[in-house]
Amino acid sequence: MLLHLIHLGRVDYAEGLERQQELVALRKRQRIGDVLLLLEHPPVLTLGRNAHRENIVATHEALARRRVAIHEINRGGDVTYHGPGQIVGYPILDLRGEFPNKKGPHLGAVEYVRCLEEVLIRTCAEYGVLTQRTAGRTGVWTLPGGSIPEKKIAAIGVHISQGVTSHGFAWNVTTDLRDFQLIVPCGIADCAVTSLEHEIDERRCAMPTMEQAMHAVARNFGRVFERQVLWAESVEALAQDSV
Questions:
Q1: Taking 70 as the threshold, does the pLDDT of residue 187 lie above it?
Q2: How many whole angstroms separate alpha carbon 93 and alpha carbon 225?
Q3: What is d(CA 234, CA 31) in angstroms, rounded to the nearest whole number?
Q4: What pTM was computed for the model?
Q5: Are 198 and 153 in contact (CB under 8 A)?
Q6: Is 50 helix (H, G, I), strand (E, B) or coil?
Q7: Identified catalytic residue from 115, 124, 186, 191
Q8: In the CATH scheme, what architecture does the domain 2-241 have?
Q9: Which residues in 185-223 are b (16+ Cβ under 10 Å) and which e?
Q10: Catalytic annotation present for 186
Q11: Average model confidence (pLDDT) for the chain?
């Protein structure tokens, strides 16, 4: 099975959402196969279906001064932040397709989220950063130790319609963590946010570039979801090939 990988670079959230929607429509009609969009966004806050506005702690004036946009979207979860230095992944998968190691006839929503977490756990491990799942909390978290608490390094929020996925994950690589002070991330007030840059031990492992980190995500995504990853030039080229 193939997975088409498209790297959009840094694009506004609205543009990234439009690209997603185009691909979701094509995937639902079986005009294209599975796709993974990887990109970065300028600073933006997104509110999922279960979001609480009070979890945006910055004032409208402060957000306007910093040019931080707000978008209400149909993924699950509460409020989250996207910004430079963060690898955002939007998988467009048909969960009714072939997944040789799946537990049932289709890949279920919970199993799908666990697979996304596994992609990021493996990717962090490549750079010597050990992470884990935390019971009752979606995402990927660093391991606590002694007086050091666990910290969230990747957020996940998905939407599934007619078996086809959209939205996805956000992995903090070199993200400016001060921007998370604008919100209560994912509505969880008692846990800090971190990034690969803050957790990596550069005496043992070199800090990757964003491009290297992106390749690592794509490689592990292919392994976890049992797909052969192929680069696609653009959304337009992939759509044109489907005609």
A1: no
A2: 10
A3: 16
A4: 0.92
A5: no
A6: coil
A7: 186
A8: 2-Layer Sandwich (3.30)
A9: bbbbeebebbbbbbbbeeeeeeebebeebbbbbbbbbbe
A10: yes
A11: 90
